[in-house]
Design brief:
Blueprint: E1 2-3, E2 10-11, E3 40-43, E4 59-64, E5 71-73, E6 78-82, E7 94-95, E8 109-116, E9 119-124, E10 131-133, E11 136-137, E12 144-145, E13 151-154, E14 157-164, E15 168-171
Parallel strand pairs: 6-7
Antiparallel strand pairs: 1-2, 3-15, 4-5, 4-14, 6-8, 8-9, 9-12, 10-11, 10-13, 13-14
């Protein structure tokens, strides 16, 4: 268990934010968790924690709750997020089927992430079980600005999003 320094609530291992008060559960909230992983050093030109600034060539690092391996993508103009379905032939750009997406209520075409100028925008694609960012519901069809460190919930699948400026991963 991880104890929140702010409200002293117990949180599950692997959580980035307190379930009660929402405070970060890492020592320095300005340092994204992916920059502090044991055995991996990430070098970046800027520290973007909490910002919506996302430049051409930046990468989106996604941690699915209860899975230690990040998903690293360089979003193009638009990236559809959902789960593949062999029966219907659906294959979204970011396929979350391997993360028990069906059980967790992720739609085949759940949401889209658009890069607009120097920001990432999220849009719920009228999903069956909804989309939330940091606990707030995203209305279908309404663009929502994403920030470094956001918690994204597609149905009951929880992910944490981090922005990084073209990192060079070096194993120690």
């Amino acid at each position: 268990m991880i104890i929140c320094a702010n409200c002293h609530s117990e949180n599950r291992e692997g959580e980035f934010f307190c379930a009660v008060c929402g405070c970060g559960l890492i020592n320095d909230p300005r340092t994204p968790i992916y920059m502090r992983r044991e055995g991996v050093e990430v070098k970046t030109d800027r520290l973007a924690w909490g910002t919506s600034h996302f430049e051409e060539g930046d990468q989106l690092v996604i941690y699915v709750r209860d899975d230690a391996t990040p998903i690293i993508v360089e979003p193009g103009t638009q990236m559809v997020v959902g789960r593949s379905d062999a029966y219907s032939g659906v294959s979204p750009d970011l396929d979350l089927a391997a993360y028990r997406a069906v059980e967790r209520g992720v739609s085949r075409y759940h949401a889209a992430i658009h890069r607009v100028e120097q920001a990432l925008m999220l849009e719920d694609l009228n999903s069956s079980n909804g989309t939330r960012v940091n606990g707030r519901r995203v209305p279908p069809g309404q663009p929502w600005v994403l920030h470094d460190g956001d918690e994204l919930r597609l149905g009951n699948l929880i992910m944490h999003l981090y922005f990084t400026a073209v990192p060079r991963l070096q194993r120690s």
